[in-house]
Amino acid sequence: MQPGGVLVFGCSDELVNSGLKADERAITAQGVPVITVSAGSAIRNGEEPVDNTATALEALINETGDALRKIDCKVVKIGALFSAESIRIVARTLQQSEHLMTVLDAEPFFKTGPAPKQEAVTALRKEILPSVKVLSATVPEVKALLDEAGIPVDYPKSIQDVQSMANTLRNLGPEYVIIKREMFEETDGMTTLHFVLCGGEEPLIVASRFENPKKLFGASYSIPPVIAAHLAKGYGTQEAVSASFKFVEEMIKGGDYFS
After folding, report:
1. What is the CATH number assigned to the segment(s) 2-253?
2. Distance (Å, whole) CA 81 – CA 209
3. pLDDT per residue over 142-196, tens digit each?
4. CA triplet 129, 135, 138: central angle to 5 degrees?
5. Is the dihedral of CA 143, 170, 38, 31 positive or negative?
6. Integer angstrom CA distances of residue 253 from 180, 186, 188, 220, 249
């Protein structure tokens, strides 16, 4: 059994920089053991995910059990899950191991193929969110979760509005909420990464603008698995989040997104 690792639930994907492959590479780059469990596969039209197929529930249960026997899991990172039933299987894993820290990446849950069914969003909110240490999302995913919970909010117009959204979502269970954004400007070849982290101490608000020599976009998808890796190494939450954004920034600056 490998010590101090990360168990990742997510989507199998033919693209090397997407889904479980990307998560595995990001975590391995931090020197942390990782094992993955596929909740389903993305179906693509070119690079665009257009549909998905879910892993059979019995297979998901068996793969989860096998994974937990192979690795001493400190952190669970959750990405795309495709049904309320699969969400409940993952939730039972979290409930049976109270020592586990959970990082939920809401982007792949909402963006891998068609929009998730209402019952899946409800199951995510009720079954997973109360166990989450760190929830990472962009504004649309936060709004979708709050809308499902019957908490209507407007799109934010200021950093204070973003903080308010994050703290409102924390009321549904997550200890920490990160709302992040990645922007690339074609005109000057610059990328901006910024995030608001709410929870625990004072809110952490960070923005960084830097050269992007290879015009890479989408590297911020690697931030949640890197956060999971740093938590597994014993970092505090703010330290783990800051180090993860810095890792992705340096990767973009170097033009090396796991190429």
Report:
1. 3.40.1190.20
2. 33
3. 999 999 999 999 999 999 999 999 999 999 999 999 999 999 998 999 999 999 9
4. 120
5. positive
6. 18, 15, 14, 13, 6
Domain coordinates of the chain in residue numbers? 2-253
d(CA 258, CA 219): 9
| Pair 92, 130: CB distance under 8 Å | no
- Look-up of token digits 């909010």: 153
- For helices 237-253 and 223-232, what crossing angle results, to 10°? 130
Asked whether 62 and 47 are in contact (CB, 8 A), the reply is no
What is the tens place of the pLDDT at every residue in 210-252? 999 999 888 899 999 999 999 999 999 999 999 999 999 999 9
Cα of first residue to Cα of last residue in the chain, in angstroms, is: 30
What is the three-state SS of the chain?
CEEEEEEEEEEECCCCCCHHHHHHHHHHCCCCCEEEEEEEEEEEECCEEEEEEECCHHHHHHHHHHHHHHEEEEEEEECCCCCHHHHHHHHHHHHHCCCCEEEEEHHHHHHCCCCCCHHHHHHHHHHHHHHCCEEEECHHHHHHHHHHCCCCCCCCCCHHHHHHHHHHHHCCCCCEEEEEEEEEECCCCEEEEEEEEEECEEEEEEEEEEECCCCCCCHHHHHHHHHHHHHHCCCCHHHHHHHHHHHHHHHHHCCCCCC
Name the pTM for this structure.
Answer: 0.94
Q: Are strands 190-199 and 176-185 parallel, antiparallel or unpaired?
A: antiparallel
Give the full edge-to-edge strand order of the sheet including 101-105.
48-54, 34-45, 2-12, 71-78, 101-105, 134-137, 176-185, 190-199, 201-211
